[in-house]
């Protein structure tokens, strides 16, 4: 049985990137796919860029208002006609063998429903492999991850741009929460991987843009709606630790923005016994010194050095 993919690309004000993103799909070595591009009320020339690409496999759906990433992904899922959904953000791109590799993995693990590869980050033309809990011996290998939450107590080993899911799972775990406007992927991962395993290839076949001034992840986040992670507690030890880690991550983001009120709210929720000494130190660092370290980190990134407390 042949495998067909529906590639869902949410698009909002990415005119500088979307052509490369779309071409990375159209130039795949594996060609059994459709592209569903959801224009989420872009105010720049993104739609003109996409319309200049003439390929019958590309379907454009337009929102009549800006609904956000979750709604755009849900629109793409519901419009898809093929059984496997591959997500790709409009400022990221795939290596040419990405879909062919996923196809091979699906054939190797026919009873599984979620598949992903590792990724690299592009920070202003400098490329980094994110630090994670993946063992060095797993590089280049495919394996089954039965406890997603344990292996992701740190930087995630995947992003939304390098995950493929069988369409049937959305009926079991639900769609993306459209009320959540930040960290909607974390909310979905909790529901997804509480039920399903992950088939993972530790190979960097996707490039993710680390910095874009128009990106949702670089706007003022304390004004956004975060998922209510506490409702998922007390299902397993590894999930509880995963949730606590992301509460800590949200706290750190609030601290980055000097959002004192929100910092106090999230700090009260953190359980310190599952954090590292360095992570606890960052909680207690006085704000001026903390912000100084954040500025130093950004300068190092500009020079090609990537450091992380995660």
Descriptors for this entry?
single chain; 310 residues; alpha/beta; Spore Coat Polysaccharide Biosynthesis Protein SpsA, Chain A; 2 domains; 11 helices; 10 strands
Residues in helix, %: 25-40%
Which structural class fits the helix and strand makeup? alpha/beta
Radius of gyration: 19 Å
Which superfamily, in CATH terms, is the homologous superfamily of the largest domain? Answer: Spore Coat Polysaccharide Biosynthesis Protein SpsA, Chain A
Predict the CATH topology of the largest domain: Spore Coat Polysaccharide Biosynthesis Protein SpsA, Chain A
Residue runs with pLDDT of under 50 for 5 or more positions: 212-219
Strand content: 15-25%
Q: Count the helices. How many? A: 11
Give a written overview of the molecule.
With 310 residues, the protein is α/β, with parallel strands linked by helices. The protein has 11 helices and 10 strands. It folds into 2 domains: 5-216, Spore Coat Polysaccharide Biosynthesis Protein SpsA, Chain A; 220-302, no CATH class. Helix 8 runs antiparallel to helix 9 (260-267). The protein is globular. 36% of the residues are buried. Residues 212-219 have low confidence and may be disordered.
């Amino acid at each position: 049985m042949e495998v067909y993919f529906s590639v869902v690309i949410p698009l909002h004000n990415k005119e500088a990137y979307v052509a490369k993103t779309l071409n990375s799909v159209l130039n795949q070595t594996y060609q059994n796919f459709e592209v569903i591009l959801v224009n989420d009320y872009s105010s720049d020339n993104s739609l003109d860029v996409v319309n200049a690409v003439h390929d019958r496999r590309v379907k454009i759906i337009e929102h009549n208002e800006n609904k956000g990433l979750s709604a755009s992904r849900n629109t793409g899922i519901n419009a898809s006609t093929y059984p496997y959904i591959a997500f790709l953000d409009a400022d990221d791109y795939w290596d040419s063998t990405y879909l062919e590799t996923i196809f091979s993995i699906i054939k190797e693990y026919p009873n599984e429903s979620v598949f992903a590869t590792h990724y690299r980050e592009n920070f202003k033309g400098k490329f980094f492999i994110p630090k994670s809990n993946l063992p060095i011996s797993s590089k280049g290998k495919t394996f089954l991850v039965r406890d997603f939450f344990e292996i992701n107590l740190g930087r995630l080993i995947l992003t939304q741009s390098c995950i493929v899911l069988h369409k049937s799972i959305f009926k079991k775990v639900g769609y993306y929460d459209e009320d959540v406007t930040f960290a909607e992927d974390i909310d979905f991962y909790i529901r997804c991987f509480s039920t399903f395993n992950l088939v993972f290839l530790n190979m960097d076949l996707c490039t993710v843009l680390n910095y874009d001034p128009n990106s949702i992840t670089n706007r003022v986040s304390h004004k956004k709606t975060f998922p209510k992670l506490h409702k998922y507690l007390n299902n397993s030890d590894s999930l509880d630790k995963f949730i606590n880690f992301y509460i800590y991550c949200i706290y750190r983001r609030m601290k980055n923005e000097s959002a004192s009120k929100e910092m106090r709210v999230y700090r009260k929720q953190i359980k310190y016994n599952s954090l590292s000494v360095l992570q606890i130190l960052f909680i207690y660092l006085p704000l001026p010194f903390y912000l100084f370290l954040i500025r130093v980190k950004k300068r190092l990134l500009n020079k090609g050095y990537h450091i992380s407390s995660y």
